[in-house]
Design brief:
The chain is of the alpha/beta class and 496 residues long. 33% of the residues lie in helices and 13% in strands. Helix 15 links the parallel strand 7 and strand 8. The mean pLDDT is 97. It binds flavin-adenine dinucleotide and iron/sulfur cluster.
């Protein structure tokens, strides 16, 4: 570290967001362009080089955080980019989208605000692209082995990049028309603009990875055919089977799953559609589900010009500080009040006058929907619940609702394409693909990784899964342990 007292003299400063009134009128990233670089070296200098970096373990990728903090504080951007890319294929994705469990585990966070690790990561990644420190790295020689990766989300992309760079001939099969998985059609551009994704895809193509889009394995091409054609197959198909809300009135029109709604809004941004057929413009929108997917619906509905937007969360309003008994440092606290950019917008624009200031109604459980004579939803009935989810008497209320979005999470890979059945894959009771300690499924030569096997997770875990399954496949193909494996299939976030 350039200044050993940096953590005593420099307060935490985050990449500032653009004013709400400005950013809610466009779809660009919420951050002030160019405002990160001038502050980031001083912020990196807040790293104490504590000696036992829990941030390291808290990051599923094992990112070498103190090392690149030091390099950034000294403005050695090239070395910082090398150290960052040594453990993370796509730091510009995590630098924007990761909830940063590393910061929850930062030693400084015991009694001070943590180092802005995620911002440092993003600054290094962006600078690396600007300066040309992230060139394509095609393999020096080919192994003669072939691998099919099914699914082009962060898991499939990380696996494909690792295997291509190791010399194998890799084809990525994707049922959508463009690669990227949830980063393409789930996550809105105001969280990560798509040019970051395009740039990485270009790099991967230049390295030799082939992409076969608009090809659903199981439907457009038989899964067994792929097994015959390739020496190994990686299933990275994600967990897109959404959870339902089986309450009276669910069949009314105007009630949609979040992943029916968000892809259409993203397709408008891609130029595929003039307007979204499910646009929230002028509508009273209620989002059922308090998680990040719900927050993405919130930010999208605000930008589409909804008349009002309310988000329902089944959990009680969380505390401002972590509960040191149940979720102590250095674990990532789940139950703590967080104000995402979308909630900040909803708060400042007062999108839900009858809810908490940030548009959320906490401890709220949906009882039923009512419709009009045309069978369209027009209202939602809810009740407040206690910690055991029992209704609290006298708390029933009705919200106007002409667009309802269900954001209740995902149970595992969807079975519609027939892939699971064609291969005869063994599944876990909760609906994910079963695999052994080496990421192998019950079908010889077929491996599984990412949300499809781990269950609904995060980009950082997906990249770690992709790197780890690549190591397992490479070992299967060559017999040697050359590639890094940051996690095992049963690793979980740090917990008490
Ligand atoms: C709306 C939303 C917002 C999110 N926001 C964040 C966030 O801000 N930060 C974060 O860390 N995480 C976020 N997540 C979670 C994160 O996106 C996922 O954990 C991650 O994308 C999982 O990666 P994956 O590659 O395993 O699966 P996916 O990204 O789901 O990719 C799987 C791909 O496989 C393809 N596929 C499936 N079946 C077939 C088939 N038979 N043939 C060919 N292709 C197939 C799918 O079309 C898809 O493209 C979000 C999730 C959602 C739903
Ligand atoms: S990937 Fe996430 S957990 Fe790892 S260093 Fe980056 S922000 Fe932290």
């Amino acid at each position: 570290m350039a200044d050993p007292k940096g953590f005593l003299t420099t307060p935490r400063q985050e990449w500032p967001r653009r004013p709400v009134e400005e950013r809610a009128r466009d779809w660009d990233e919420v951050y002030v362009p160019g405002a990160l670089l001038p502050i980031i070296s001083k912020q990196a200098d807040r790293c104490m080089d504590c000696g036992i970096p829990f941030c390291h373990d808290a990051c599923p990728l094992g990112n070498l955080i103190p090392e690149w903090n030091d390099l950034v504080s000294r403005e050695d951007w090239r070395a910082a980019a090398d150290r960052l890319h040594a453990t993370n294929n796509f730091p510009e994705f995590t630098g924007r989208l990761c909830p940063a469990p590393c910061e929850a585990g930062c030693v400084l966070a015991i009694n001070q605000p943590a180092v802005t690790i995620k911002n440092v990561e993003c600054a290094i990644a962006d600078r690396a692209w600007e300066e040309g420190f992230a060139p394509p790295k095609p393999p020096e020689r080919l192994s003669g082995k072939t691998v099919a990766v099914i699914g082009s989300g962060p898991t499939g992309l990380a696996a494909a990049q690792q295997l291509t760079r190791a010399g194998h001939t890799v084809a990525v099969y994707e049922r959508d028309d463009r690669p990227g998985g949830l980063m393409r059609y789930g996550i809105p551009a105001f969280k990560m603009e798509k040019h970051h994704l395009e740039r990485r895809l270009e790099q991967m193509r230049a390295e030799g990875t082939k992409f076969r889009t608009s090809t659903a394995v199981g439907r457009d091409i038989g899964a067994d055919e792929l097994r015959t054609r390739y020496d190994a197959v990686v299933l990275a198909t994600g967990a897109t089977a959404w959870r339902e809300l089986p309450v009276p009135g669910r069949e009314l029109t105007g009630i949609h799953q979040a992943m029916e709604y968000l892809p259409l809004a993203n397709r408008v941004r891609e130029g595929d559609l003039e307007t979204s057929p499910l646009s929230a413009a002028g509508k009273h929108v209620v989002i059922v589900g308090g998680g990040d997917t719900g927050a993405d619906c919130l930010g999208t509905a605000v930008r589409e010009g909804a008349a009002s937007v309310t988000q329902l969360d089944i959990y009680a309003l969380p505390e401002a500080e972590r509960d040191e008994d149940t979720e102590p440092w250095p674990t990532y606290p789940m139950r703590i009040y967080r104000l995402s950019a979308a909630h900040e917008e909803a708060r400042d624009l007062r999108t839900a006058p009858v809810a908490h200031a940030d548009a959320r109604l906490f401890a709220a459980s949906t009882l039923r929907f009512d419709g009009d004579a045309q069978g369209r939803v027009c209202s939602l009935h809810l009740v407040e619940v206690d910690a055991r989810r029992h209704p609290v008497e006298g708390t029933g209320r009705t919200l106007p609702a002409d667009l309802v979005l269900l954001a209740l999470g995902f149970s595992g890979p969807d079975r519609e394409d027939g892939l699971v059945d064609q291969l005869g894959l063994e599944m876990e009771p909760r609906g994910t693909i079963r695999r052994d300690s080496g990421f192998a499924t019950n079908v010889p030569g077929v491996f599984a990784a990412g949300d499809a096997a781990r269950g609904q997770s995060l980009i950082v875990w997906a990249i770690a899964e992709g790197r780890a399954v690549a190591a397992a496949v490479d070992r299967h193909l060559t017999g040697s342990a050359r590639l890094p494996a940051p996690i095992g299939p049963y690793d979980r976030p740090m917990a008490v």
